[in-house]
Design brief:
about 350 residues; alpha/beta; GMP Synthetase, Chain A, domain 3; Rossmann fold; 2 domains; about 20% strand; globular
Amino acid sequence: MSTSADEDAVYDLLREVEDPDLGEDIVSLNLVNSVTVDGEEVSISLALGAPYSPNETAIAERVREVLGHEGIAADLSAAVDRGPGREEGVLPDVKNVIAVASGKGGVGKSTVAVNLAAGLSAMGAQVGLFDADVYGPNVPRMVAADEHPQATREERIIPPEKYGMKLMSMAFLVGEDDPVIWRGPMIHKILTQLTEDVEWGALDYLVVDLPPGTGDTQLTLLQNVPVTGAVIVTTPQDVAVDDARKGLRMFGRHDTPVVGVVENMSGFICPDCGSRHAIFGKGGGEAFAKEVEMPFLGEVPLDPGVREGGDEGGPTILEEGESADALQGVVEGVANNVGVLHRSRLRQQ
């Protein structure tokens, strides 16, 4: 049998593998970059762009299973085209930039961002966490990062690491008790420095904790950084959901996809009796996601342990319990939906 015929046979087998999210086979969806047959060696490149996404991992496992039934042990790799000129632009070695946003403060946005980044890192991904809340940077405290950035001879910034994540925050550059007062041009300058002048290296995900609202910081980031998608955090109460709508409109104006909606503080878990109380109402985030036809990533309870983890620098997702399980569901949902964004774009090509 000729090499080309062997390659055709492999493609035929790959047509048996269905994308669990998009409902079509991976060949029809343009998710097979290439098939190379060299004697007994078979190499396949798949267009999978969300490392450690459970659903993309399942696709790769299904490929191995289908080929294995025919006695083929293929070498699989993953690569996705992120758009023309992407490799020469800002953050060229970062596969995915995930912005975590909220319409108002006090909804636990930074908690979600920290646990999202820590969860992705714990799954094995190369992760950076960028605290872009220039007015109230608190991510270093939430991960107990006491090491400050270093600099190369070329005056590029080397971010410290904690829990396997590379960290950058305005808090590293100002005194702990110093008030931060920035105007628009200053925000643009500092955000440019903290993205372009940092040695982030090769990352699967860069999680960006945005300040609440829809101000200069958010606009600067969306205009200058290739954001893959946004996660919107809200609480169940109507006033928070109303503000979340403003954030959604902001991302829509900048053609930034929304990865999903997280409902934080969905119910208070009493540490004494274990019962749950709907202090901020119930179901507002899920109803909002359904109304705007966005994925719902799950509910995270109002748990004193989450607050303690943030104050003491230990991400809750690395512990055990209901809150950790809920946050893990959010992490897996984000990774899965980032993959859907990439694969949907390829289907349209």
